[in-house]
Amino acid sequence: AGVAYWGVPYPADTVKSKIQTVPRFSSMGFVEAFKTIVKEEGIAGLYKGCGITCARAAPSHALLFFFYEAVSDYLATHFLYK
């Protein structure tokens, strides 16, 4: 779920990051920066770094789900059914 989540907002995050960190993008608005990235780098330019982000998301979300289930089970057995 965490990996799939990043596929949709990642291009917007890429544009935001370029506006914040690349001097020539700092004076551009979001749409202008988006168009510039697509023109110069193609659609793939919007997904630079997405692989590592998804690779990081997989184990972190797996742990999140594991601990959520563990705590839910603990609370249910120790507090809800007494």
Overall structural class, as computed from helix and strand content, comes to mainly alpha
SSE series = HHHH
**Total of helices:** 4
Q: List low-confidence stretches.
A: none
Distance from N terminus to C terminus (CA atoms, Å) equals 34 Å
In percent, how much strand structure appears in the residues?
under 5%
Oligomer state equals single chain
Tell me the radius of gyration. Answer: 19 Å
Mean pLDDT, all residues: 89
Shape call? elongated
Helix coverage percent? over 70%
Please provide the count of β strands: 0
Largest sheet: none
Tell me what you see in this structure.
- With 82 residues, the protein is mainly alpha-helical.
- Helices cover 74% and strands 0% of the residues.
- The protein contains 4 helices and no strands.
- It has helices at residues 2-7, 10-21, 30-41, 50-80.
- Helix 2 packs across helix 3 (30-41).
- The protein is elongated, with a radius of gyration of 19 Å.
Secondary structure blueprint with pairings:
Layout (H helix, E strand, L loop, with lengths): L1 H6 L2 H12 L8 H12 L8 H31 L2
